[in-house]
């Protein structure tokens, strides 16, 4: 991404959010988790509960810049002029979550091959791996109703999500949400690793060694404490940005 310059009319807080969100799009591309021009990552604007930033539809994730991110309202309408439009398939999901869960400030939707394979299975995610155990008690499930285009599905998604941070869209993909871009990205990375390991373990055959409920709860509690209190997610995000920039320069 070429060096960007903050528009004089934009506040520093919004500009920093735009830069960070553009980095998040580039990281998802760097790790190979994109679905060509589809899928979406959104970030709610600080101090503005009704507006969020999202990608212009038709651009590759590598083409996202702080400047071309769209600012939209909870109905998916652009609140600032842009030559681009947003992907209508993202409005139902993102506007539903941002409208109902004010603790979620960043929402990432993907359907990588390992994740799509796991969410197609009736039992969904296993919590018996190192990464799976960190998701214990955090995963909600929503039945597939077709492409998420329609507002009528919003309430059902929110009811199924409840107070969780990972929404499995059965037979489709996932949405992960956290109170910052860094935490949402780390959560996505953890879910992706859990799915990769689950797929590999399943391909091996044989019986998995189960973890106890106590150990799984301990893992998810410790992970939540680490992410919440230590700044770990920020360190991880910044390190991944540096790695990406060093290898793509």
TrEMBL record:
Family to which this protein belongs: Belongs to the aldolase class II family.
GO terms under biological process: monosaccharide metabolic process
GO cellular component: cytoskeleton
NCBIfam families per record: PRK07044.1
Class II aldolase/adducin N-terminal domain residues: 19-199
UniProt cross-references to Gene3D superfamilies, sorted A to Z: Class II aldolase/adducin N-terminal domain (3.40.225.10)
Identification of the protein by name: Class II aldolase/adducin family protein
Source lineage: Bacteria, Pseudomonadati, Pseudomonadota, Gammaproteobacteria, Moraxellales
InterPro entries: Aldolase-II_Adducin_sf (IPR051017), Aldolase_II/adducin_N (IPR001303), Aldolase_II/adducin_N_sf (IPR036409)
Pfam family, one: Aldolase_II
Single GO MF annotation: actin filament binding
């Amino acid at each position: 991404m070429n060096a960007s310059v903050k528009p004089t009319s934009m506040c520093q807080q919004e500009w920093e959010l735009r830069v960070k969100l553009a980095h998040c799009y580039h990281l998802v591309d760097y790790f190979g988790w994109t679905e060509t021009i589809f899928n979406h990552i959104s970030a709610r604007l600080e101090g503005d509960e009704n507006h969020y930033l999202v990608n212009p539809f038709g651009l590759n994730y590598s083409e996202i810049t702080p400047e071309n991110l769209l600012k939209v309202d909870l109905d998916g309408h652009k609140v600032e002029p842009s030559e681009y439009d947003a992907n209508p398939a993202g409005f139902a999901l993102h506007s539903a979550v941002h409208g109902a869960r004010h603790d979620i400030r960043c929402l990432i939707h993907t359907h990588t091959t390992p994740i799509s394979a796991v969410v197609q299975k009736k039992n969904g995610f296993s919590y018996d791996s190192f990464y799976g155990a960190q998701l214990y008690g955090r995963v909600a499930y929503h039945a597939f109703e077709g492409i998420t285009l329609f507002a009528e599905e919003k309430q059902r998604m929110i009811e199924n999500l409840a107070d969780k941070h990972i929404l499995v869209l059965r037979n489709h993909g996932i949405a992960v949400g956290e109170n910052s871009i860094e935490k949402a990205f780390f959560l996505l990375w953890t879910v992706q690793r859990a799915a990769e390991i689950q797929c590999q373990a399943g391909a091996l055959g044989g019986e998995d060694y189960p973890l106890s409920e106590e150990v799984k709860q301990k893992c998810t509690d410790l992970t939540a404490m680490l992410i919440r209190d230590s700044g770990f997610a920020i360190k991880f995000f910044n390190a991944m940005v540096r790695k990406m920039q060093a290898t793509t320069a």
